[in-house]
Amino acid sequence: MAHGAVDQQQVLASDWSGGKSPFAVGWPKLMMWLFLVSDTLTFAGLLAGYGVIRISLGRWPVRAEIFNLYLVGAMTFILICSSATMAVAVSAAKRGDHRRVIPYLLLTVLGGLLFLCGQAYEWTHFIREGARLFGNPWGIPQFSATFFITTGFHGGHVSVGVLYLLVTTLRWSRRSIQPESVEIAGLYWHFVDLVWVFIFTLLYLI
Question: Any idea where the Heme-copper oxidase subunit III family profile domain is (predicted)?
Fold first, then answer.
């Protein structure tokens, strides 16, 4: 019995006993990483499908003649800047600098809202030009379909991210969350920004 009790204590004290994370990662952060991995596969599937469609058709509208690339470039710049402000907020939270966290979270939210406004303007212009989910004036229905689905899916992520950051800001102001919660929100926001870089490159530039 004594030998068995010693073995049980050794198991409970090990990193794989379930009592603590073997990778020193908290449960909420681990769940966010798992979600981001699954979401990465979804976006990869969308972009891979877009590439297959383009290659199989052999011809594609000239994006510079349809989209305002200056607007989209500005949207991209704003989103990248919002990643920088998010990084500052996470750093301040880890240092315990409570007063700097909220302003930089709100700046990140502002960046997300400006991006969404730019996307709404772009969609409005695109629709007024005659683009629909299953047809457009440029003769390639897949062109507008892939645009609406891919950018719309990403825009939904940005919208969720803005709400997520607002809730995080409110909870931080009430001192009801730990710095790790801000870091987890930052992981989501950086992911959304990184995905847009790929979308911008493939849908608008190449």
Answer: 1-206
Structure tokens at 171: 């909870």
pLDDT digits (tens, 9 = 90+) for 164-204: 999 999 999 999 999 999 999 999 999 999 999 999 999 99
Proportion of the chain in helix, strand, coil states, percent, rounded to 5: 80, 0, 20
What is the residue type of 119?
Q
DSSP 8-state code for residue 65:
G
CATH class for the region spanning 26-205 = mainly alpha
Sign of CA dihedral 120, 126, 130, 132: negative
Give the Å distances, CA to CA, from 25 to 39, 88, 101, 192: 20, 21, 22, 21
What does the alpha-carbon distance between residue 163 and residue 124 come to, in Å, rounded to a whole number?
23
Structure confidence by residue, pLDDT tens digits, 95-112: 999 899 999 999 999 999
Strand partners for 132: 135
Which SS3 state, helix, strand or coil, does residue 135 take?
strand
* Residue 135: strand pairing partners: 132
Over residues 12-29, the pLDDT tens digits come to: 455 555 555 556 678 889
Q: Where are the domains of the chain?
A: 26-205
Residues composing the chain: 206
Contacts for 167 with CB less than 8 Å, ≥ 6 apart: none
pTM: 0.87
